[in-house]
């Protein structure tokens, strides 16, 4: 009886969840198609002649120009170019970069670990610092700690991060000389990069000092990129904790004589984390915007810098493919956040 | 019941108008109420004072600024601010690599930043509210098309979208403003649509509809005023974001072009002197930070005052 009962609830809880995931995935398809159309149109509206830019300052003869245009398929009508782009996309082919003539997907994949490493460290810093700070500010509402945390986070939230990065460079690289100004690793180290994640690769290389060097390169960009998410997470955690602490079940827990620590850690935090998870998910999408600026300041060889360079060079396929992949990643992250939401909050899971 | 229907539609607004004029003296208006609650928030008031100050400086830029923002003093290139060795009160905050007075450039930059904020917010607010009203009120395929488009725009990182739009239109301050306005559009559309959807089911809308109000009257006069509070808050907050994003585009070389004294492009020009002349880099960014911070503090205060439901 008992076994059957549990089985039954399991089926009820799981099937809607699966169909929920499936429906969400299906809904991604029209949006993705829309994104291909929007990026394709935008990218091809960019004025300037890619062939002339490829040729550089030496120029190119009119005949050779026409030849190259035909080779790249740029002389065909727009809709034909779009259809062939879609067709190739279905085969996982995002085209070739006009500058390096490497496949766009390969270029993206070779640079993505750098952005991922930076973004992951920044998010880790933001979450590990932001949640405790928000909790403390919420518990000690109205105290000096609260005002300091809230004031600092509002400043962080308003921070022009490109300027913040320059300030940190002035102080830590210029005055103190502690950190390098740009890049991921000093040129004195030459190591294999099997994973693309510099912290892991330097550890694997066994080269003494390489890991510390990579860490020194990573630290300022991480702080810069983490600033805004950190501020947002701290603010959200505080207000969420405040809301939860006013609930009846917290009063009940207090009345039962539970220790304040237990009330916060077990009763309040779990419920307070629900809106915070959403905010963290949203921040991951925004992180790419920050990565563009951070990577530009620190000459970090990642996706953000690559995309800005692609705009400057009129590298249509790279830009188009890059935006598409990033949009896909952002949508997948949002989907995962939606699912996590269900994991943290059983009320939502069961109501679906 | 049957007596209500034959009533001429034109009579209803008249009755309403009379009612409000008679009642106002006895009942505190919602605006006064909001002001009373806003006034109690000292931080928000301070933010408002700073904004007022920036606006005054921006308006009087020609009078307040000691020099023209583009005048080059070739004999005093990269002069430090007055409190440092080698600095003088002639250039209070020092000069940049072309010998231009930084203070004067910052003051004229304030004018640009305020203009950017006003134009971006009006554009995205105006178009966003219109699209949101259409989507939320008419529903059906219009709603689907508009909201799908907004979903697409939201899934592209905002700065990247702005960069691509600027690349299409060509770099420059005005195009940067357009690009930022486009990027902010989805937020206004979503916000308007969601409030319109809740409001349109309310009794007063039904009453207005029964009284014979047309679609436009229902959308703009009956429903829209009741959706304004969150929109005002969003407008203040996106004003500060617009200043920030315009500076970011300027910094990437895609916004205002030299010699325009826009804060972000000042930073871009100064980047190569980052380790030699800290003041060239520090002050423009500080100006951005103070402006954005003031708007965010005021926006927070406004949100608490106007829309207690949103209080966080």
UniProtKB/TrEMBL annotation, chain A:
Name of the protein described by the UniProt record: Dipeptide transport system permease protein DppB
Originating organism: Kushneria phyllosphaerae
InterPro entries (alphabetical): BPD_transp_1_N, MetI-like, MetI-like_sf
GO cellular component: plasma membrane
Sequence ranges assigned to domain ABC transmembrane type-1 in this UniProt record: 112-341
CDD domains for this protein: TM_PBP2
Subcellular location as annotated: Cell membrane
UniProt keyword annotation of Membrane present: yes
Keywords: Cell membrane, Membrane, Transmembrane, Transmembrane helix, Transport
Family: Belongs to the binding-protein-dependent transport system permease family. OppBC subfamily.
Pfam families, per the entry: BPD_transp_1, BPD_transp_1_N
SUPFAM superfamilies attached to this UniProt entry: MetI-like
Residue ranges crossing the lipid bilayer per the database entry: 25-46, 116-139, 160-179, 214-234, 279-303, 323-344
Keyword Membrane: yes
Membrane topology: Multi-pass membrane protein
One GO MF term attached to the UniProt entry: dipeptide transmembrane transporter activity
TrEMBL record, chain B:
Transmembrane segments: 43-65, 114-138, 159-184, 231-256, 276-299
Leader sequence segment: none
GO molecular function: dipeptide transmembrane transporter activity
InterPro entries, A to Z: BP-dependent_transpt_permease, MetI-like, MetI-like_sf, OppC_N
Extent of Polar residues compositional bias: 17-26
Subcellular location: Cell membrane
Chain intervals for the UniProt region annotation (Disordered): 1-30
Keyword Heme: no
Composition bias, Pro residues: 1-11
Record-level GO cellular component terms: plasma membrane
Recorded topology in the membrane: Multi-pass membrane protein
Family annotation (Gene3D superfamilies): MetI-like
Domain of life: Bacteria
One matching Pfam family: BPD_transp_1
Protein keywords: Cell membrane, Membrane, Transmembrane, Transmembrane helix, Transport
All residue ranges annotated as the ABC transmembrane type-1 domain in the record: 110-299
Family to which this protein belongs: Belongs to the binding-protein-dependent transport system permease family.
PANTHER family: D,D-DIPEPTIDE TRANSPORT SYSTEM PERMEASE PROTEIN DDPC-RELATED, OLIGOPEPTIDE TRANSPORT SYSTEM PERMEASE PROTEIN APPC
The protein's name: Dipeptide transport system permease protein DppC
Organism: Kushneria phyllosphaerae
